[in-house]
Amino acid sequence: MKKRIVVGATGASGLPLLIKCLEIIRENPEYESGLIMSPSAELTLKQETTWTPEEVKKLADHVFNPEEIGAKPASGSFKAEGMLIVPCSMKTIAGIHSGYADNLILRAADVTIKEQRTLVLAARETPLSGIHLRNLYELSMLPGVRIIPPMMTFYHKPETIDDMTYHIAAKLLEPFGIEAKEYRRWNGL
Length: 189
Known about the structure:
Protein name: Flavin prenyltransferase UbiX
Radius of gyration: 15 Å
Pfam families: Flavoprotein
Number of helices: 7
Largest sheet: 6 strands, parallel
Catalytic activity: dimethylallyl phosphate + FMNH2 = prenylated FMNH2 + phosphate
EC number: 2.5.1.129
Keywords: Flavoprotein, FMN, Prenyltransferase, Transferase
């Protein structure tokens, strides 16, 4: 049986990261992805890329409707390595923090936390308000929750935006045990 990763996408900026994460998961035959894209993510996708939502959904092994609150990822009995939300809006962070699970992305995150599975949040906002920071801090204290804002790095000497996107996507997937082929780790000075 393949290792499952539930992948949520919300309307924050950063949809190219979602595409790259899905591509990297697909390159790893022992893993499969289940995608939940919010309507806001689909709108932002059109602003940030030339991809259609249908093209992105083809990168996933399974696709779930965000309004399908009774779908498999809504239950703790659905076996998964965990969940990645990329990008993750502050609205979604607030919903996860408060336990307000009114759609499948929030419910799947809630289940991931209660089952103490890995939950990776690619939190996207700038500047961060005190409310954002409080929500992020309190979520970071929960077992298995990783806050990984998509921060640019330069030690790997990226030459293109795609190089930076790949590097960040690899960092987002690392907590699930996925080793991206072209990921360059820090090797010291």
